Amino acid sequence: MLRIECWDTGIGIEADDLEKIFMEFQRVDAPVKDSKMGLGLGLSIVKRFAELLGHAVIVESRPGRGSMFGVTVPLAPLHGGVVDPEDRSTDLAPLRGRAIAVLDDDTAALDAITQVLEDWGCRVIGAETGDALVAALRDRKAAPDLLLIDYLLGGELEGDDIIDQIREAVAASPPAILLTGAADAPTLQRIQQSGHRWLIKPVAPANLAATMLEMLET
Fold first, then answer.
1. 4: Cβ–Cβ under 8 A, 6 or more apart, which residues?
2. How far apart are CA 101 and CA 176, in angstroms?
3. Which of 1, 65, 77, 120 sits most deeply, having the most CB atoms within 10 A of its CB?
4. pTM of full prediction above 0.70
């Protein structure tokens, strides 16, 4: 077995709160909502995926010193040598040069997806607010090829509303994919009713690429 650990030197977590941090929409260090700090879904998603895969997740913390999160996974032998990281089953060539508009109010998530898209050769127009993205796209001479829009943005408008605003601003209807970190039934029902394609975060790069290619082809 192999245990992968992530250590930080933050404010730490009280013992009574160690179980709460794995619950959805719980942030024990943020009593006042701050959209830049996320929605408190990350650890809930980690725990859910770990349980599905049969991996144990642990947390140890000392208030005022920091925390350690760990996940234990089974070691597996290599077969046929080391896998070439450049070997992809999906041909990403059609994505090169494509203009992709990305909206996510979580700075870390926006940076991460931007890096992935740029590695694929995409040209990214990213923003943390709907107003900023609409303004950036309005200033462009051409509409983006695809929209990747976070659904829950912490305001009155949701992702599908921003898609409508973007399409009106650019006088075109680029295909759109909604991304959501909330997988509860009411949220997913609202997304389905919007009629847009959607993916649950965190999205595997291969799954994101396949969906993007499908949307661009159709």
1. 70, 71, 72, 73
2. 9
3. 120
4. no
